[in-house]
Amino acid sequence: MEPKPDPNKLMAWARLLRTQQVLLERVEAELKQAGLPPLRWYDVLLELRRAGTQGLRQFEIGTAVLLNKYNLSRLLDRLEAQDLLQRDLCEEDGRGARVRITPAGRDLLKRMWPVYGGAINAHFARHFNNKELRQLSVLLGRIPGVAR
After folding, report:
1. Which of 8, 53, 118, 128 could form a disulfide with 132 if both were Cys (CB 3.0 to 4.6 A apart)?
2. What does each C-alpha distance from 129 to 121, 123, 124, 135 come to in angstroms?
3. Are the C-beta atoms of 48 and 72 separated by less than 8 Å?
4. pLDDT at 145
5. CA distances from 52 to 2, 45, 57, 99, 112 (A)
6. Domain residue spans of the chain
7. Residue 67: is its pLDDT beyond 70?
8. 62: closest CA among 52, 49, 53, 71?
Protein backbone atom coordinates (compact mmCIF):
# COMPACT_ATOMS: atom_id res chain seq x y z
CA MET A 1 0.00 0.00 0.00
CA GLU A 2 1.24 3.45 -0.89
CA PRO A 3 2.10 5.60 2.15
CA LYS A 4 0.37 8.63 0.63
CA PRO A 5 -2.30 8.61 -2.10
CA ASP A 6 -0.99 9.75 -5.47
CA PRO A 7 -3.16 12.72 -6.53
CA ASN A 8 -2.81 11.86 -10.23
CA LYS A 9 -4.11 8.34 -9.64
CA LEU A 10 -6.96 9.57 -7.49
CA MET A 11 -7.95 12.29 -9.97
CA ALA A 12 -7.93 9.89 -12.94
CA TRP A 13 -9.92 7.30 -10.98
CA ALA A 14 -12.50 9.82 -9.76
CA ARG A 15 -12.94 11.34 -13.20
CA LEU A 16 -13.36 7.93 -14.80
CA LEU A 17 -16.11 6.99 -12.35
CA ARG A 18 -17.77 10.40 -12.51
CA THR A 19 -17.66 10.34 -16.30
CA GLN A 20 -19.41 6.99 -16.45
CA GLN A 21 -22.09 8.11 -14.03
CA VAL A 22 -22.75 11.44 -15.76
CA LEU A 23 -22.83 9.96 -19.25
CA LEU A 24 -25.17 7.12 -18.30
CA GLU A 25 -27.51 9.58 -16.58
CA ARG A 26 -27.58 11.77 -19.69
CA VAL A 27 -28.25 8.84 -22.02
CA GLU A 28 -31.02 7.55 -19.75
CA ALA A 29 -32.61 11.02 -19.63
CA GLU A 30 -32.62 11.28 -23.42
CA LEU A 31 -34.12 7.81 -23.84
CA LYS A 32 -36.82 8.65 -21.29
CA GLN A 33 -37.56 11.99 -22.95
CA ALA A 34 -38.02 10.16 -26.27
CA GLY A 35 -40.48 7.76 -24.63
CA LEU A 36 -38.07 4.82 -24.93
CA PRO A 37 -37.15 2.19 -22.36
CA PRO A 38 -33.95 2.24 -20.28
CA LEU A 39 -30.50 1.60 -21.70
CA ARG A 40 -30.36 -1.84 -20.03
CA TRP A 41 -33.07 -2.99 -22.44
CA TYR A 42 -30.96 -1.88 -25.39
CA ASP A 43 -27.87 -3.56 -23.97
CA VAL A 44 -29.58 -6.95 -23.60
CA LEU A 45 -31.35 -6.78 -26.96
CA LEU A 46 -28.13 -5.80 -28.73
CA GLU A 47 -26.30 -8.83 -27.34
CA LEU A 48 -29.18 -11.08 -28.40
CA ARG A 49 -29.15 -9.61 -31.90
CA ARG A 50 -25.39 -10.15 -32.11
CA ALA A 51 -25.85 -13.78 -31.07
CA GLY A 52 -28.00 -14.45 -34.11
CA THR A 53 -30.47 -17.28 -34.40
CA GLN A 54 -28.78 -19.47 -31.78
CA GLY A 55 -29.46 -16.89 -29.07
CA LEU A 56 -27.75 -16.91 -25.70
CA ARG A 57 -28.13 -18.69 -22.39
CA GLN A 58 -29.04 -16.40 -19.50
CA PHE A 59 -25.58 -16.64 -17.93
CA GLU A 60 -24.07 -15.70 -21.32
CA ILE A 61 -26.23 -12.59 -21.42
CA GLY A 62 -24.97 -11.66 -17.96
CA THR A 63 -21.39 -12.02 -19.16
CA ALA A 64 -21.95 -10.07 -22.38
CA VAL A 65 -23.89 -7.01 -21.24
CA LEU A 66 -22.05 -3.80 -20.47
CA LEU A 67 -24.38 -2.61 -17.77
CA ASN A 68 -25.09 -3.86 -14.26
CA LYS A 69 -26.27 -7.47 -14.18
CA TYR A 70 -28.43 -6.85 -11.11
CA ASN A 71 -31.89 -8.39 -11.53
CA LEU A 72 -31.16 -9.70 -15.02
CA SER A 73 -33.82 -12.38 -14.55
CA ARG A 74 -36.53 -9.80 -13.88
CA LEU A 75 -35.37 -7.70 -16.81
CA LEU A 76 -35.62 -10.72 -19.11
CA ASP A 77 -39.12 -11.38 -17.76
CA ARG A 78 -40.15 -7.80 -18.63
CA LEU A 79 -38.63 -8.01 -22.10
CA GLU A 80 -40.37 -11.32 -22.71
CA ALA A 81 -43.70 -9.88 -21.52
CA GLN A 82 -43.26 -7.11 -24.12
CA ASP A 83 -42.58 -9.75 -26.82
CA LEU A 84 -39.04 -8.40 -27.30
CA LEU A 85 -37.39 -11.76 -26.67
CA GLN A 86 -38.37 -15.40 -26.44
CA ARG A 87 -37.04 -18.24 -24.37
CA ASP A 88 -36.84 -21.76 -25.73
CA LEU A 89 -35.78 -24.92 -23.96
CA CYS A 90 -32.09 -25.47 -24.28
CA GLU A 91 -31.24 -28.65 -26.17
CA GLU A 92 -27.90 -29.04 -24.36
CA ASP A 93 -29.49 -28.77 -20.93
CA GLY A 94 -33.15 -29.53 -20.35
CA ARG A 95 -33.29 -27.17 -17.37
CA GLY A 96 -31.96 -24.05 -19.08
CA ALA A 97 -33.29 -21.84 -21.83
CA ARG A 98 -31.93 -20.18 -24.93
CA VAL A 99 -32.95 -16.56 -25.21
CA ARG A 100 -33.51 -15.06 -28.65
CA ILE A 101 -34.49 -11.60 -29.85
CA THR A 102 -37.86 -11.27 -31.60
CA PRO A 103 -38.74 -9.04 -34.55
CA ALA A 104 -40.30 -6.60 -32.08
CA GLY A 105 -37.00 -6.56 -30.19
CA ARG A 106 -35.11 -5.80 -33.39
CA ASP A 107 -37.55 -3.00 -34.13
CA LEU A 108 -37.05 -1.49 -30.68
CA LEU A 109 -33.26 -1.54 -31.16
CA LYS A 110 -33.70 0.37 -34.43
CA ARG A 111 -35.89 2.97 -32.71
CA MET A 112 -33.53 3.36 -29.74
CA TRP A 113 -30.27 3.69 -31.65
CA PRO A 114 -30.78 7.20 -33.07
CA VAL A 115 -31.39 8.54 -29.55
CA TYR A 116 -28.61 6.48 -27.95
CA GLY A 117 -26.12 7.15 -30.74
CA GLY A 118 -26.98 10.84 -30.71
CA ALA A 119 -26.41 10.97 -26.95
CA ILE A 120 -23.03 9.22 -27.31
CA ASN A 121 -22.00 11.85 -29.82
CA ALA A 122 -23.46 14.86 -28.01
CA HIS A 123 -22.23 14.04 -24.53
CA PHE A 124 -19.03 12.13 -25.23
CA ALA A 125 -17.54 11.70 -28.72
CA ARG A 126 -17.79 15.33 -29.84
CA HIS A 127 -15.29 16.32 -27.14
CA PHE A 128 -12.53 14.29 -28.85
CA ASN A 129 -11.12 13.85 -32.33
CA ASN A 130 -10.84 10.38 -33.89
CA LYS A 131 -7.20 9.99 -32.89
CA GLU A 132 -8.02 10.81 -29.27
CA LEU A 133 -10.95 8.38 -29.27
CA ARG A 134 -8.71 5.58 -30.56
CA GLN A 135 -6.07 6.49 -27.96
CA LEU A 136 -8.63 6.51 -25.15
CA SER A 137 -9.91 3.13 -26.28
CA VAL A 138 -6.38 1.70 -26.33
CA LEU A 139 -5.56 3.13 -22.91
CA LEU A 140 -8.71 1.79 -21.28
CA GLY A 141 -8.23 -1.53 -23.08
CA ARG A 142 -5.05 -2.11 -21.09
CA ILE A 143 -7.14 -2.84 -18.00
CA PRO A 144 -7.71 -6.61 -17.78
CA GLY A 145 -11.26 -7.61 -18.64
CA VAL A 146 -12.11 -4.35 -20.41
CA ALA A 147 -11.13 -5.14 -24.00
CA ARG A 148 -13.54 -7.70 -25.45
Report:
1. 128
2. 11, 14, 11, 10
3. no
4. 83
5. 48, 11, 12, 10, 19
6. 22-137
7. no
8. 71
